[in-house]
Design brief:
By secondary structure, this protein is an alpha+beta fold. Helix content is 27%, strand content 42%. The chain has a domain of 118 residues: Nuclear Transport Factor 2, Chain: A, CATH 3.10.450. The longest helix is centred in the N-terminal third of the chain and has 25 residues. The protein is globular, with a radius of gyration of 17 Å.
Amino acid sequence: MDETPRTNPVLQEMIDHYEIRKVISVYCHGCDRGDEARIADAFLEDSLDIHGNYKGSGKALAKRVADAAAGGVTSTHLLGQSLIHVTGLEAGADTYFIANVAMKGEDDREVAHLMGGRYVDTFRREEGKWKISKRIVVRDWSISLDADNDWIKSRNFVPGQLKAEDPSYAVLGLLAGLAK
């Protein structure tokens, strides 16, 4: 049986909040880099993700996101505040986000889909780690924009890459294929 560590209650709350927020951040980084292992690691085996038209396991969602990235779909997440409530080995979290998903549209022009919303998550601590057991993605607003008119594309910024080719993997100490 998994046990909650016993420390000062305020310190334990801070640790739990940090660990939960880190799971959410790693999930988003995995989505943005098309890293199936990092996305999947955020979820429990018996997880449920309610993500618009998709309703299924978090592990299966990880494969869908990685496959979409390999097919040319890019995403960027910006996380906002999180409200987190921990009760023993379970927790609830409401985390604001803005996500951008860029892809080719029907007329082969690039389209940027922006969405503001919230991850409403139920977490469970198993084997000493917080993981998502249920996620509901809430849409608060969205808009789609023509992204072919990109004024900064020719300004020599380093482009984001998938997985280990992205510069973030080097500075974060991540090795290709590892979900840690």
